[in-house]
Amino acid sequence: MESAVVRYRIISQVLFLTIFVLLFLLTNYRGFDEIRYPVRIFLEFDPLIAFTTLLAAHHLPTVMLFSLAVVGSALVLGRVFCGWVCPLGTIHHFVSWLYHRKEKDILPRSNLLGYRIKYYLLFFILASSVFTLQSVGFFDPISLLIRSMTLFVEPVVNLMVHSIFGFFYDTEIRWITALTEPIYSLLKNNFLSFRQPYFHQALFIGFLFVAILLMNFYRMRFWCFSLCPLGALLGLVSQVSLLRRWISEACTKCDICFSGCQAFARGNQDKWLRSECLVCGNCQNRCPEGAIDFGLSPSAALTKPGLNLIRRNLLVSAASGIIAVPFLRMNSRYRNPNPKLIRPPGALEEGEFLKRCLKCGECMKVCLTNGLQPTLMEAGLEGIWSPILIPRLGYCQFYCTLCGQVCPSGAIKKLTVSKKVQVRIGLAFIDKNRCLPYSQGIDCIVCEEYCPTPKKAIWFIEKRVKDRGGIVKIVKQPVVDLELCTGCGICENKCPVVDKPAIVVTSIGESRSGVNRLSLY
Amino acid sequence: MTQEPNRRTFLRTLGLSAASITLSPLAESLLPGSTLPARNVPIDLVVAEGSSIPKITSAAVGLMGGIKRFISRGDIVVIKPNMAWDRKPEQAANTNPHVVATLVSLCLDAGAKRVKVFDRSCDDPRRCYVQSGIAHAARKAGAEITFVDDRKFKEMNIGGEVLKSWKIYTEVVEADALINVPIAKHHSLAKLSMAMKNWMGAIGGWRGKLHWRLNQCLADLASFFKPSLTLLDAVRILVNHGPQGGRLEDVKGMDMVIAGVDQIAVDSFGATLFGMKGSDLGCVKEGHTRGLGRMDIENLKVKRVHVPTP
């Protein structure tokens, strides 16, 4: 039988995870130009992201002030966010529970002292953000979860559901499809992606995600315990929290309380680590004597913290964070713009963009055409997993403004439709050696047909050509108007020269850059 | 408690499943078809003009012999509009939503079992369906609005001069009655995009490849698809920067719809709205030459009607 605290905690965990998943599903085009409830709301409550954004970009989106609520909760109740709210924490908790629920005692493994690593990681991140490197996106739990869900979990789930129902569909047996197809449409209309998403590096990101989930087998809530920098920040704040644990005289020192502890907050009264305690209530729940009690006390804030960080390690972490800045930026990108680095419309100038981008992947999730993909090295080490448009995979839909709407940090500006259609993200170039009207003298015009600017950015030169049989005809040879081309990439996407398109967009001409321009345009 | 399957029950199940898989299409083909020979109506084309879109649509269908000439009670009807682009009705890149909605109502009133409306759009389908206004209007009129399902494209034998076989949307082929509702608009290769060009939205594959020999391909498609009725929307026509337009300067209000059974004749008449003749359009000429229909509208009976607004 669970105690009241544990019951409420589980309800809270399920509730917040459900809200997270719902918001995640709502972060999608659903027939309206505006996305009202994007999942970035969770990032707005994330104090670590607010803090590093302020440090790195010297800017704080107003909505990120919500994160003060989480700081406030830590000042009163310690790491209650980690134990009761954090969706990634809940997932870790669930996986840990699956694996460890039969164990009577997890004491041996809980002895590991790895809990300090996260503080060193936090110092690394904070030091680098002071020197304008926004590295928090790689490690922040919310950002990590949204990214992993978008780039890996959702595509995998889609593919699985699709192939299962596809199997039944392909049987072409009436009574089977009559049964399965309604379920499939229900799922498709409400939960699945509109089209099967494919992402570069899905496997890599999925591997990392699965790896941190598997670490729960090694140790309960390994990520929360050892690595999570947000947990570390809240741990530091909760050093001065009002939360207190009392152990009454009834304690027989049986140590059963250790067995349920998800973190390293074990020990008797003197050794209890407030900074590690996730306030999960398991110890209280398991105590056969009912000797454990939690409560608030102003005097608790003054008790000795007991968080035993090694000063030398902290200094080394901070120093590494500082050294990381030039190290990650040792890249030719700073000398010459990358032609392939086509950023979403509304993206800030590259330097400023990288200071804010959290690599959460929300822009990639909402991109209608699946054209926004995570970078690997296109934007340097610093920009890994930031968004890049790959026109061959998907173009930028002319009237769509979704990526800017869901960006949590303002790395992609929110644009009105009338502004967005004027933003240039690149420029199309025709490869005359491959373009059919030029190289073969045959009709095509597909790029012009798809060109979305009201006055088309592709026009024609009509050319008389003679075919092999001597028959003269007129073909329309496309030309890009560099004043009108927005670089949306639909021409490259639809070019019928399938393998290597005859019209290619590169980043030159992008509105956000002062340098990467062609002459005066 | 479940019983372990023994060899006999296993074989019986296997045999029954195999039989049901093999026989189910056969059983379907034995069911009576619902195609009735069309009554011979002397009018070849109806051109209805007026400011009320539902009225001119109904009038055009009415003068062609009424919707019951084209569909029967219990039919599954597919209405194929052009909703290829992320554009609004006033930009005249997609079929007018009221034309489509009126057709849906007519079909349902005539006893159609189901009316399906879809298009394989060029831009993101979700935006096209919403921005064109068609999804909303047609759904309100009672149609089933679905996005095309990739699984339902099947390689079919076209038997054309250029297109030997191509991926075709099965729901279009399987419909009891098919109604083609294109919009009349400019296209820089076909010159104009109307009824024949609208079949591009019923096929799968990499459609741009058809552009190489577009006119022949369009004639091939026109010989493959057998619409009971073609209704050309010329409420607004797009005279330049087609097929998706975007500028209101390129839109010309005509307040007109053209109905016909012969899609070549419909397109041939449509050409006159742009100051061209049917023979100016390669695909129409090709269709005429092949005997798919007639482009010599001067020899056809064209009924013009003006529907006044009360």
Protein architecture, described:
The complex is a heterodimer of chains A (521) and B (310). Chain A has helices spanning 4-26, 40-44, 47-57, 67-77, 80-85, 87-100, 107-110, 117-130, 136-139, 141-171, 174-190, 202-218, 222-227, 229-238, 256-260, 282-286, 311-328, 350-356, 362-366, 402-406, 417-420, 436-439, 446-450, 490-494, and strands at residues 243-247, 292-296, 372-374, 387-389, 427-430, 458-466, 472-480, 503-506. By secondary structure, chain A is mostly helical. The model of chain A has no long low-confidence stretch (mean pLDDT 90). By secondary structure, chain B is α/β, with parallel strands linked by helices. Chain B has a single domain, classed as 3-Layer(aba) Sandwich (Rossmann fold), CATH 3.40.50.11440. In chain B, 33% of the residues lie in helices and 21% in strands. Chain B is built from 10 helices and 12 strands. In chain B, the strands form 2 sheets. In chain B, strands 1, 2, 3, 4, 7, 8, 9, 10, 11 and 12 form a 10-stranded mixed sheet that branches. A two-stranded antiparallel sheet of chain B has the order 5-6. In chain B, helix 3 (97-109) packs parallel to helix 5. The longest helix of chain B has 24 residues, at 7-30. Residues 23-39 of chain B have low confidence and may be disordered. Classes of the chains: A mainly alpha (521), B alpha/beta (310). The interface between A and B is medium-sized, with 36 and 31 residues.
In short:
The complex is a heterodimer of chains A (521) and B (310). Chain A has helices at residues 4-26, 40-44, 47-57, 67-77, 80-85, 87-100, 107-110, 117-130, 136-139, 141-171, 174-190, 202-218, 222-227, 229-238, 256-260, 282-286, 311-328, 350-356, 362-366, 402-406, 417-420, 436-439, 446-450, 490-494, and strands at 243-247, 292-296, 372-374, 387-389, 427-430, 458-466, 472-480, 503-506.
In terms of topology, how is this protein built?
The complex is a heterodimer of chains A (521) and B (310).
Chain A (H helix, E strand, L loop, with lengths): L3 H23 L13 H5 L2 H11 L9 H11 L2 H6 L1 H14 L6 H4 L6 H14 L5 H4 L1 H31 L2 H17 L11 H17 L3 H6 L1 H10 L4 E5 L8 H5 L21 H5 L5 E5 L14 H18 L21 H7 L5 H5 L5 E3 L12 E3 L12 H5 L10 H4 L6 E4 L5 H4 L6 H5 L7 E9 L5 E9 L9 H5 L8 E4 L15
Chain B lengths: L6 H24 L14 E5 L3 H11 L12 E6 L15 H13 L4 E4 L7 H7 L2 H7 L3 E2 L7 E5 L7 E5 H5 L2 E5 L1 E5 L3 E3 L1 H4 L15 H11 L4 E10 L12 E10 L2 H11 L8 H8 L12 E5 L4
Parallel strand pairs in B: 1-12, 2-3, 2-7, 3-4, 7-10, 8-10
Antiparallel strand pairs in B: 1-11, 5-6, 8-9, 10-11
Helix pairs in contact in B: 2-3, 3-5, 8-10, 9-10
